[in-house]
Amino acid sequence: MNDLSHQAQLETEEILLTDEERQPCEVWTRVMGYHRPVASFNIGKKGEHNERQYFQECRAKLAA
User: Fold this and answer.
1) 35: left (phi over 0), alpha (psi -120 to 50) or beta
2) Helix/strand/coil (H, E, C) string of the chain?
3) I need a labelling partner for 25 at 20 to 30 A (CA). Which of 6, 18, 38, 46 fits?
4) Is residue 38 within 8 Å of 25, Cβ to Cβ?
5) Which residue has the higher pLDDT, 22 or 63?
6) pTM over 0.70
7) Residues 29 and 38: beta-carbon distance below 8 Å
């Protein structure tokens, strides 16, 4: 079996994990020009991070 056919087989198989197999995802953010893990924030900074509103750019509607 070559690498491409093995990769295609892996893409079609559904991977199911139990809760014991999962691990937490570490979230990092850019603060004052450098990156830090959110887990190291104090309680106030964690609250500010949770209140962030993320910008979503939409396609402009042009007049016809």
Assistant:
1) beta
2) CCHHHHHHHHHHCCCCCCCCCCCCCCCEEEECCEEEEHHHCCHHHHHHHHCCCCCCCCCCCCCC
3) 6
4) no
5) 22
6) no
7) yes
Supply 41's token pair. 């924030």
Pairwise CA distance, residues 60 & 55, whole Å: 15
From CA 29, how far away is CA 35, in angstroms rounded? Answer: 5
Q: What is the CA radius of gyration of the chain?
A: 21
Looking up tokens 């691990």 gives 23
How do residues 20-58 score in pLDDT, each as one tens digit? 999 989 989 887 889 999 999 999 999 998 998 888 888
Residue 44 bridge partners (DSSP): none
